[in-house]
Model the fold of this input.
Amino acid sequence: MGKAMALSPQRDFDAGAHAIRRLNACGITGSQEALTTRSVMNAIKALDDAGRLTAWVVGSLPVVEAALAPGEWGETLFALRDSYRTRHFRPDAGKVFLDGVPTSRTSAMLEPYLPDTLHGCCFRGSTTLTVPQLARALADCEARGIAVKIHCAGDGAVRSALDAVEVVRSFNGPGLLHQIAHASFIDPADVPRFAALNVAADLSPMLWFPGVIVEAIRTTVPEKRVDRFWPNRDLHESGALIAGGSDWPVVSDPNPWVGIQGMVTRRDPTGMFPGALWPEQALDLATVLQAYTLNPARAMGMAHETGSLEVGKSADLIVLDRHLFRIPSEELAATRVLATYFEGVVVHEAEA
Done:
C-alpha cells in the first residue's frame, strides 16, 4: 500500500496529461474541473510547471464535505489557492453537491418519484443542505471572490439553489456568477430566475437527447416529467447564460461535437435511440456554438482572456474538416478537429 500511495502523484500527473491531450484532440482549450481536491491541484500545477498544461483550467474546490471529496474542504483548501495558482490554472471556483441523481432517487424532486417498495408512493428525495445553510456557504464564498458550481439534478434542488442565491442577492446585491450544474429538471416558474439572479446553467450533453441515461431515468421518474427534460431553449430565451459542458468521465467521451448535434436536433446522434427528447427545446447552431465557446469562458470568469477571437485575447482556435453552417445538422457529430491552437501554438494535429 505504501508503494502504491507513493506512486499516486505520478499517476495523477499522467492521468491529467492524458485528459489534456484528449481534450485538445476534441478542440477544447479551456475547461472547469468539477471537483478539485488537493491531489487534483497538485497534478494540474505540476502539469503547468512542466509546460504540459495546454488548456485553461478553472478548479472547483469543495465548499463543504462531500462523499467524493472526504477529508478536506472549505477554508482548508481555499487558503491554498494562491500557492497552486499558475498561468493556466485558476483555483477560483467552489463546488457543492446539493443532491444526487434521479436514477438512484437521490435527486431532490418537486413531485414524487414513481412508487417502489423501498420509498413508497410519495418520496421526493432531499437536498444535502438547507436553503439557509447553502446561502451562508455562498455568502462566505463570495466574500473570498469564489463563484460556486452547484450540482442540482432534480428540480427541487434547482429551486433550493435559486432560493439560496436569492437570499444572498438580497443582502449583497448582484454578486458573482454562480452556476447550477446540469440544470436538467427545472420547474417552468424557475426558468426566468436564472437570468434574474445572475446564475448560469451548466449543461451536460449526452443527456438532452434519447439515450441510456434518459431511459434509466424513466424507470424512476414519471414519464410526463422526463418528457420535459432539459429546457435549453426556454433558458436561453429567458436570458440565462447557458454553457455547454461534458460531465466527463461520467459520460464516456468529452467530444463536444456529439453534444452540439444533440443540442441542435434533440435526437441521438448515434442513431441507436429513436425519436426526439422535447424537440421544442432545440436551438440553432449559432446559439449552440456560443454555448460552447464564449459562454463557458464567461461562466468561468475568463471571457477577458479567451472564448472568442478578439484583439488582446489568447489565440485559442481550431481548424475543422468541414464548414459547420454548410452541412446538415445530422452531420455535426462527425466533425473532426484537424488542428488545435492554444496561445497560438499547435497542441494537436490530426493524423493524415
